[in-house]
Specification:
This protein has about 280 residues and is α/β, with parallel strands linked by helices. Helices cover about 40% and strands about 15% of the residues. It has a single domain, classed as Arginase, Chain A, CATH 3.40.800. An 8-stranded parallel sheet has the order 4-1-5-10-9-6-7-8, with helices on both faces. It has a two-stranded antiparallel sheet with strand order 2-3. A hairpin with a 2-residue loop joins strand 2 and strand 3. The chain is globular.
Length: about 280
């Protein structure tokens, strides 16, 4: 397998702080050697660079999404699997846009592994926190200007599943329940229901984009995140679910986000992130 490692060193749209520090720390923890050990050929390593120009929040996120999309599309065209190292979950908007640039109208599914729904919109969000909105945006709800800036056509929510979710705002849950998206809580993931959900939702897609927000894991395993949520999945659950997704359709891209080295008090999470990536791709 050829892999293109795409670093997104931004916390929201600010360079080199918080979760934006994760890509370099993960590389330092031995990512390349671990991937080579499981037989993966790394053909590209790209780090997005440069400050995001001033402007309104949606426009600035749109600039970043466009940069991610460009690198994802290039990787796909060169026959490599894009592996996006975040950064926060807004990288997912760029990943989806990049897959559309590379594959055109050919449909792809999304498996979104996260403690949170990321299905808020500016109209219903209690906090206004834009990184709590990427999946809704990808599916055509809210942040229209950002989606336009990224040249993203909404993805069919019937080809979307959510894994490990357990923290939904009330209005967010109502919006999610109005869609055909299946969302599995940690107990359902642990019970092995990912394969059934993936088999149902990914029947008519050629590829699947797998997004892993590290806070899907229980804080006992992954304390180094900004928004920990109790009663999450184990690292083994995440790997098993990631492999179950790939039994339904080949991976189109993988993103791993929300690891904050500044919150990693014992310094062990970078090695965990390396292992998760390697085991999911092995």
């Amino acid at each position: 397998m050829k892999v293109s490692l795409i670093s997104v060193p931004y916390d929201q749209v600010e360079l080199g702080r918080g979760v934006g520090l994760a890509p370099s720390i993960v590389f330092q923890a031995g990512l390349l050697a671990r991937l080579q050990a499981v037989g993966i050929e790394t053909v590209l390593q790209t780090a997005l660079q440069g400050e995001i120009p001033p402007g309104d929040p949606a426009s600035r996120f749109g600039v970043l999404a466009g940069r991610v999309a460009q690198q994802v599309a290039q990787a796909c065209r060169e026959g490599a699997l894009p592996v996006i190292l975040g950064g926060d979950c807004m990288a997912g908007v760029g990943a989806a846009a990049g897959l559309q640039r590379a594959f055109g109208a050919k449909p792809f599914g999304i498996a979104w592994m996260d403690a949170h729904g990321d299905f808020n919109t500016p109209e219903i969000s209690l906090s206004g926190f834009i990184p709590g909105m990427p999946l809704a945006c990808i599916c055509g709800h809210g942040l229209d200007a950002l989606r336009t800036a990224a040249a993203l056509t909404p993805v069919d929510p019937a080809a979307v599943i959510m894994l490990g979710v357990r923290d939904l705002d009330p209005a967010e849950k109502d919006l999610l329940d109005s869609t055909p998206i299946s969302y599995l809580d940690p107990a359902e993931v642990q019970a092995g229901r990912t394969q059934t959900a993936a088999g149902y939702h990914f029947q008519n897609v050629e590829r699947v984009y797998l997004h892993l927000d590290i806070d899907a894991l229980d804080p006992a395993f992954a304390p180094g995140v900004d928004f920990p949520s109790q009663d999450g999945i184990t690292p083994e659950d995440a790997v098993t679910a990631g492999r179950a997704v790939q039994q339904a359709a080949p991976l189109a891209a993988l993103s791993v986000t929300a690891f904050n080295p500044e919150k990693d008090v014992d310094g062990k999470m970078a090695a965990l992130v390396v292992e998760l990536i390697a085991e999911i791709l092995a």
